[in-house]
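[audit] Reproducing an earlier prediction to check determinism. Same input, same settings, fresh worker. If the tokens differ from the archived copy the diff job will pick it up downstream; this log only records the rerun itself.
[audit] input (283 residues):
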Amino acid sequence: MTLSRLKPLRRLSHHLHRRSLAVTAAAVRQDTTHWAQTPLVKVSPAAESLFHISVDISDSPELATSYTKAGQYLQLRLQDPRTRPAFFAIASPPSITASEGVFEFLVKSIPGSTAELLCRLQKGDVVELSPAMGKGFDIDRISPPENYQTVLIFATGSGISPIRSLIEAGFGADRRSDVRLYYGARSLHRMAYQERFKEWESSGVNIVPVLSQPDDSWKGERGYVQAAFARAKRTFSPRSTGALLCGHKQMAEQLLLSVNLVPAWFQHFQLVSFAASAVTPQS
């Protein structure tokens, strides 16, 4: 393994460690912050083990004003004091939150978790939300679009949640020559937001679904997103390319190693890998 390939991986591990500490520190801080009681307005299946969750925050305008960038997240807790608060990435873009007074989430129902209990609730049930946290996706790092013509986005499972927010908030995709979303799931039954693909494509994002366990009728990419990207064998300039990963640490590490990303690419690279289990993308 060459030194040029080890450097970004070491920086990735350092980034993950720092982010884990930051999320833990944020959780401690949130113990003393304001929790707003908010009713659920929608709980519906999005895909196998994934649920659309919408929360009405119209009576808590401070929640809406705290959400300014795609990629932010918050804490949610149930009325049952025996359950622990959980982190969730916000799926709806800030504009929807501001105009409609809702937060939308894509939640994976993980057995024994707060997320599982949340997905069992019904419209009208009340949950408590913290203000939005985190800095969100730093789109300024790949602006203006004319200077960063290639943007590569990788997401797996419920990691598509904040990516939806990014795409629908807009980042000048239609002014770039090559914007690709490699979206991995086990099967089409586990792939959320398929009904939004046409809209996303029209905004300038080329969607590449990748299935690790498809049925025999599947004609698209198979395996994992990092392998699908490597098979594409497209050339790009590291200094005019942005990349965003939202998924498991293992996926990020394998991607960096498999495609031999040079350190220069890292200056426009963002990794999203939440430490809390409820928000960690699951395939």
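[audit] rerun output stored. Observation attached for the diff report: Confidence is low (pLDDT under 50) at residues 1-9, 261-268, 270-283.
[audit] end
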